[in-house]
Design goal:
D-amino Acid Aminotransferase, Chain A, domain 1, alpha+beta, 18 strands, 11 helices, 36% helix
Length: 396
């Protein structure tokens, strides 16, 4: 396979790498970062040479072994996901989701010199083993998201380090609040220690220091799971008959949203054999299906996640109630540990819920204030109060 600089500026490379390796979603994000960074150097000769070497050595040798049709290389540019359906030529082909344009907003590599040297070493040492390159880079540099950095320790655990960043509107609004990382780390540690004491399976092991947690390594499921105790926010837009402030009886409603910033995290419905995506701020109808795709979870797993999410809410609702604070709703995420166990993962901090002292929305302590006002000092003071309050979870 001959690789030219012109081809390096097209997207089929990204599709070919994803297709050839059938990567997990988290790895797609990392590879998107690597590829984008290689292509963005001011003097791109090094990036081009490394990438040319990789494509020639791995994709060139193994693309046919994965039964990826040639059409994979020629799909038109698009910001949408494209599902490569089994073709007549390759009936056993996997249904591969190839990201055509990879957003790197959530994955940033700051130490470009270290990245360049480490990547060069990794390519020379393991050109035939791209998975080891991924592991090497993840361990050395960390995977940086909007509010945290994950460092793979190489032994089945990770360090999860918080940042002072705060965002809203799917990343459109972004600021830095001094001290937020410490508040977030303390809140998440307090919450996960509470959940662990109540028998909830989580990735959390221990708090390392004021900014860092030790957790089990997980492959994250790209879903946000939301449980509602009280009707408010986007729930009212999807359910126009609902009244703001109405409390839900148990079992409380649980909703699933796909993590997809460009499409504003559509809500998921579970059809027969397919999942459907709908706009998150409209009533759900058959007429506004954005996309259909193969399930990411089995029906038993959906049920298990739903019940676990309700249990998490109940534990936290009771804890907050003892402090005269009403937990309104809660967003959590799940991942699979190395042994395949489904656990509550990521963070649960003041970005993850709505909490109203005394049940009064005007006294809200959560991220909603930032969304509505972008008042950084008031937001900081509320995050500090929330962290201090969760310190008291230790006795619950």
């Amino acid at each position: 396979m001959e690789v030219t600089t012109t081809l390096l500026n097209t997207d089929w490379f990204i599709k070919a790498v994803f297709a050839a390796q059938d990567l997990e979603p988290s790895q797609r994000g990392l590879w998107g970062t690597i590829i984008s960074k290689l292509k963005s150097y001011k003097n791109p000769s090094f990036g081009y040479e490394c990438f040319r070497e990789f494509v020639g050595a791995f994709v060139g040798k193994h693309l046919e072994n994965f039964n990826v049709p040639l059409s994979c290389r020629n799909l038109p540019k698009s910001k949408e996901r494209i599902f490569l359906e089994p073709s007549k030529e390759f009936p056993e082909e996997h249904k591969i989701v190839a990201e055509l344009l990879v957003s790197i907003e959530n994955f940033q590599i700051k130490d470009t010199e270290g990245f360049r040297k480490g990547l060069e070493d990794a390519f020379h040492k393991s050109i035939e083993s791209p998975a080891s390159v991924l592991s090497y880079i993840a361990m050395r540099l960390g995977i940086e998201g909007k509010t945290k950095v994950i460092y793979d320790l190489g032994d089945g655990t990770v360090h999860m380090a918080a940042k002072d960043d705060i965002t809203s509107g799917d990343g459109a609004q972004h600021d830095v609040i001094r001290g937020k990382a410490e508040f977030a780390t303390r809140t998440t540690a307090n919450v996960f220690e509470l959940l662990n004491r109540h028998g909830v399976a989580t990735h959390y092991i221990e708090k390392v220091d004021s900014l860092k947690l030790l957790c089990k390594r997980c492959k994250m499921i790209p879903l946000e799971v939301v449980v509602r105790g009280t009707a408010t926010g986007s729930y009212l837009k999807r359910n126009i008959q609902a009244v703001e402030g109405q409390d839900f009886e148990q079992p409380r409603p649980v909703e699933f949203f796909i993590k997809d910033d460009p499409r504003h995290d559509p809500i998921v419905t579970f059809g027969k054999g397919k999942w459907q995506l709908h706009p998150a701020r409209e009533p759900i109808t058959d007429a506004n299906v954005i996309e259909e795709f193969d399930p990411l979870l089995s029906s038993d797993e959906i049920e298990a996640i739903t019940e676990t999410t309700r249990k998490v809410f109940n534990v936290l609702f009771a804890a907050w109630a003892k402090l005269d604070v009403k937990l309104i709703d809660l967003k959590i995420e799940f991942g699979r540990t190395d042994d395949g166990s489904l656990v509550v993962a990521d963070v649960i901090d003041n970005d993850s819920w709505r909490i109203w002292p005394g049940g009064d929305k005007k006294k809200q302590l959560d991220k909603q204030l930032y969304r509505e006002t972008r008042d950084l000092e008031s937001t900081r003071s509320r995050y500090a109060v929330a962290a201090d309050l969760t310190d008291r979870f230790a006795g619950f």
